[in-house]
Specification:
Radius of gyration: 25 Å
GO molecular function: SNAP receptor activity
Subcellular location: Endoplasmic reticulum membrane
Membrane topology: Single-pass type IV membrane protein
Largest sheet: none
InterPro entries: Vesicle_transport_protein_Use1 (IPR019150)
Order of helices and strands: HHH
Keywords: Endoplasmic reticulum, ER-Golgi transport, Membrane, Protein transport, Transmembrane, Transmembrane helix, Transport
Structural class: mainly alpha
Helix content: 40-55%
Length: about 90
């Protein structure tokens, strides 16, 4: 929610900015549009996550161990990749 508060504050500052002629640098329509988007985001972030909702990806410990082993294994440079001499 800190991001939403910051976005609201920045939007308020943006709305207060004026050109040297005293004209608002951003139209009221744009400010309203941005405000609606910020409030929609705030509502989405504040909505409770259903308890029965499953995570997007489920992994077993074995799958995680296999992935870690793949990442930790050294990469062979002889697999057809060669350095260019300059």
């Amino acid at each position: 929610m800190q991001y939403v508060t910051t976005a609201r504050e920045l939007l308020e500052q943006l709305g207060a900015e004026t050109t040297p002629e005293g004209i608002s640098s951003v139209s009221k329509a744009k400010l309203s549009e941005y405000s609606e988007k910020i409030e929609a985001l705030a509502a989405r972030l504040a909505a409770p996550v259903p308890e029965n909702e499953k995570p997007v990806v489920e992994c077993t410990k074995e799958e995680v161990s296999d992935e870690i082993a793949k990442v930790e294994s050294p990469v062979s440079l002889s697999s057809g990749l060669r350095r260019r001499s300059s």
